[in-house]
Amino acid sequence: xASADHIxxxxxxxxxxxxxxxxxxxxxxxxxxxxKAGIILDGLHxxxxxxxxxxxxxxxxxxxxxxxxxxxxxIWPEAYWPENHQPETRQExxxxxxxxxxxxxxxxxxVSHPGTDIFKSDENGDSISRAALxxxxxxxxxxxxxxxxGRQLGVW
Length: 156
Description:
By secondary structure, the protein is mostly helical. It has a single domain (4-152), classed as Up-down Bundle (Four Helix Bundle (Hemerythrin (Met), subunit A)), CATH 1.20.120.450. The chain has five helices and no strands. The protein has helices spanning 4-19, 25-31, 48-67, 90-112, 128-152. The model has no long low-confidence stretch (mean pLDDT 90).
């Protein structure tokens, strides 16, 4: 069994990665230009707006599991992809990023809370640690796509 120090070290590292490590996700999203958020490049089926909606939907599902694992056990339902490819207004874009950030901060607070047993498994064998690692994996994949789209569009 891991010592309390090892668990706290693991939690600290997990939080660092949830924040985005060397490329914080929220900063990348805020840097992405609203005017380019709805552009779908040739060969792709998504825009930055669609990626943000998909990422946030998955975050919500995993956050709800983290808050109450016994009540929210389906952590990988069918993927949500927004039907509209662009935000209607800059305010809609900014608000979507704000909600994404709020949920991320709630997730970080939950993971880092001293009373959170991140390794306790539910009846399916899932844990808060696994859910957080799923967020990292899923987000890393799609943030990489967002970064590539942004580079192609001259955002960075």
